[in-house]
Design goal:
Helix content is about 5%, strand content about 55%. The longest helix has 16 residues. It is mainly β.
Length: about 800
């Protein structure tokens, strides 16, 4: 490993010595934020070129092109008569790829002379209907933030009110909500869990299928969503794919611990401005095994994924085809081991053969009716599958295997056909309306059998094939009362044909700019979400031998969100923000018999739960306050400091208020990074992240009862009454970039948990058969120190 790193550094030194004074191109388009119509004659100025302040104006189709742009970080200022100016700062220019941007300007409703407000894209969402609890995240941030591993979910865990639930997975807890409450969207449609090794009922996993090399800037929302979003009570990733370069063929190759990959993009027809984009990745985690680096399991996870987008501009619109997909498998075979090992991804008493796959493919067509109105239709098909086989291992006192018997086998398939449509009409500079709908047709094929020790036979928990519709119409209206006061309202509705559940959900928001650099925001809305689909079809057999799907009539989980925000733009690149929120959850599935169970505690592990018959009588609440101080990247450095204080409580069917699994009470993140020019064409980047958060909640184990049952027995009336020590982790990222003729190189290494902090994940019951006097309770730790390396080349 050391020789390899020295070789790469030596190779870079040779490239640096031969470097010349290279230039690059910035090009793109300028459009109206609401109507998406092009703005011909807009001014685009390269403000970082302080000598000449070079600039261009957009052509009749809103396109612009700036040649001979120096490499490094560059700033743009975009202006157009009657619109608010926009600044794009810290754009990375390398020799390997052209920079293509789409700029959306917001029209002013007052006289031109009064328009002096400078807007920045990073402190507001791309979706113009989102006024609180929303922000744009750039794909560059998924690389720049230490510990993010190029993963949008891990990157989002740095934002206020968001934290990771488990080092081994990218599940995120949004304002105390279970991770299963997060919705993923791609190109305007709801998609299955886009992660390798995904379990039914979860929204995360160990490795993301979404590759940041094919993504564009996207939105992340944490509360009081606009009316176009449904089927979520916790958070939304609204992810966009970028278009390929329509003028020049470009390629990216990357080799690292998490995968070997190739990305290609370029024009299909330069004359028609059509383009292609393709990415493929294959896992290289076997490197960890060779280097004796722990990734939480003795097995080697295998996975591969791919993505594509084809884009075809038309005379009055745009047609695109897109898709992502991934396949993964892991065989955790413990029966061949001669001593116990740490396993974050599986139980220690069984061999497990586990695999998953998912894919989404679709087409969308945008039609521009006139300069003030356009429609978009998207149709897609998706598939998500997981399967597993568990063989129970029994050993004697010498750790030798005495028997190996199957105890669990399942397979879950969910196919979905989706149609999404909306009309966006800019009625005037003051009013914009957006009606639309989303229709999902589900097809289920699920089977699950587990061995029952009492009955000494397999019991079927799932055996269902069928279909259902989820229909979601909505309408939104945005009115600019003044240039400084915006009001947004809307209604979202949901109907689930499986059991005829329905909901009507009003939404509203208000944004008031008190001065040029101060703003208040207010958001409120009703929201609902399906249960994990396998829960509906869990079955049992009554005394007469009849099969009963006792949860099929479950209603939506429902919630009401209330948010108050304050924004203070202290300088062009420095922002302070605070939000106070309250979320009331109701219609929560809990058991019929009095118990502490709630579905709000599910969704952050590899375990699926099959509780007794459920009813929608549980409640919950999340409340807190968040603070963010952020300096956007400028003058070679950035920082982001977030702090959240919150409470997350629930009531089960026993009526007792308890802490949810995710009530850590506080979370603090400190990120900072700097780029240092080490030569004309080289620079060194260093960033760090420090996370300090409240420890996980847990339930005490009854040692005597566990000894009799030979497995962990929890004191359920004390559910989540205890809390592990605080979570603390420090990450460090170092990357080095070199530009040569038409080629850019980057070598980077992420040191995850660089201090090797021992953060507790869970408490397990693990008696020592050779020494019964030893405490049978054992603390299971999250990942320790983990180095992640990659080498990337753009050409």
């Amino acid at each position: 490993m050391q020789k390899f790193v020295l070789f790469i550094l030596g190779f870079f030194c040779v490239i640096q010595l031969s470097a010349q004074d290279f230039k690059q191109v910035i090009r793109g388009s300028v459009i109206d934020k609401e109507s998406k119509s092009p703005l011909p004659g807009a001014s685009v100025i390269l403000t970082s070129d302080t000598v000449s302040l070079r600039g261009v104006t957009t052509d009749a189709n809103g396109f612009f092109r700036i040649e001979q742009v120096p490499l490094g970080r560059q700033d743009l200022k975009i202006t157009f008569i009657g619109y608010k100016p926009l600044y794009l700062n810290g754009i990375t220019i390398t020799s390997g790829k052209e920079v293509i941007v789409t700029v959306e300007l917001e029209e002013s409703i007052t006289s031109i002379a009064a328009v002096e407000i400078s807007a920045t894209r990073k402190d507001q969402a791309i979706n113009e209907m989102a006024v609180v609890s929303a922000r744009t995240f750039s794909i560059e941030e998924t690389d720049r933030y230490a510990g993010s591993r190029g993963d949008p979910a891990r990157m989002a865990s740095n934002f206020a009110g968001v934290q990771g639930a488990n080092d081994a997975r990218n599940d995120i807890v949004v304002r105390g909500n279970a991770p299963m409450g997060v919705l993923w969207r791609l190109e305007g449609i709801d998609i299955p869990n886009p992660n390798h090794f995904a379990i039914s009922g979860t929204s995360g996993g160990p490795v993301s299928i979404l590759n940041n090399k094919v993504l564009s800037n996207s939105d992340f929302l944490t509360s009081a969503f606009p009316a176009e979003y449904g089927n979520s009570v916790a958070g939304i990733f609204d992810v966009k794919m970028k278009n390929g370069n329509n003028e020049k063929h470009e390629f990216t190759g990357q080799f690292g611990f998490l995968g070997t990959e190739l990305t290609a993009e370029g024009p299909i027809s330069k004359e028609k401005r059509s383009s292609y984009l393709f990415n493929y990745r294959y896992s290289t985690l076997k490197l960890f095994e060779a280097l004796n680096v722990s990734i939480g399991t003795s097995a080697v996870p295998m996975y591969q994924d791919a993505a594509f987008k084809l884009n075809f501009p038309t005379k009055k619109g745009n047609l695109s085809f897109f898709g992502i997909g991934g396949k993964s498998s892991i065989d955790i075979i413990l029966s061949k081991q001669v001593e116990s090992t740490e396993e974050l991804y599986g139980s220690k008493d069984r061999d497990q053969y586990f695999g998953t796959s998912m894919g989404v493919s679709g087409a969308s067509y945008t039609h521009y009716i006139n300069p003030t109105a356009y429609t978009k239709l998207t149709v897609s098909g998706s598939y998500a599958e997981s399967h597993s086989l568990h063989n129970l291992i029994r050993r004697d006192s010498s750790y030798s295997v005495t028997s190996l018997n199957p105890i669990l086998v399942y397979k879950s398939e969910e196919t979905k056909l989706t149609a999404a449509y909306f009309l966006n009409k800019k009625v005037s500079s003051r009013h914009t309306i957006k009606p639309g709908f989303l229709i999902n047709r589900y097809q289920f094929n699920m089977s699950d059998s587990i061995f029952n020790n009492t009955q000494q036979q397999f019991v079927t928990r799932l055996d269902h094939t069928g279909s259902a519709l989820l229909i979601q119409p909505y309408i939104q209206w945005k009115v600019k009362i003044t240039d400084d006061l915006e009001f947004i309202s809307g209604i979202h509705a949901q109907y689930f044909s499986l059991n005829r559940s329905s909901s009507i959900e009003p939404r509203g928001g208000l944004k008031w700019r008190l001065k040029e650099n101060h703003a208040l925001g207010l958001g409120a809305g009703m929201h609902s979400q399906l249960q994990p689909t396998y829960i509906y079809f869990a079955q049992s057999i009554d005394m007469q031998g009849n099969v009963i799907q006792h949860n099929k009539g479950l209603d939506f989980t429902r919630s009401a969100h209330y948010v108050l925000s304050y924004d203070y733009n202290m300088a062009r690149n420095l922002r302070f923000k605070t939000e106070i929120y309250y979320q009331q959850l109701y219609n929560i599935p809990v058991e019929f018999q009095p118990s502490a169970y709630t579905i709000l505690n599910q969704g952050a592990s590899f375990t699926r739960l099959f509780p007794d018959s459920l009813q929608n009588t549980g409640t919950g609440k999340n409340q807190g306050i968040e603070f963010t101080l952020e300096r956007f990247f400028s003058k070679s450095y950035f920082f982001l400091i977030t702090t959240s204080f919150y409470q997350s409580k629930y009531k089960g069917s026993d009526g007792i208020e308890r802490n949810t699994d995710y009530n850590g009470r506080f979370a603090t993140n400190i990120l900072a990074g700097r780029e240092i020019k080490t030569g004309k064409k080289t620079n060194l980047g260093i960033s760090t992240k420090i996370t300090w958060a409240g420890g996980r909640r847990y339930t005490p184990i009854d040692i005597n009862a566990s000894s009799l049952a030979n497995e962990a027995v929890y004191i359920t009336d004390q559910t989540n009454s205890l809390q592990f020590k605080d979570y603390f982790r420090t990450d460090l990222r170092i990357n080095y970039k070199i530009n040569s003729r038409k080629i850019a190189h980057e070598i980077a290494i992420d040191f995850v948990n660089v201090s090797n902090s021992k953060n507790i994940l869970a408490l397990s019951y693990a008696p020592n058969p050779n020494n019964p006097t030893v405490n049978p309770l054992r603390e299971e730790y999250q990942l320790g120190f983990l180095p992640l390396f990659y080498y990337k080349i753009d050409f």
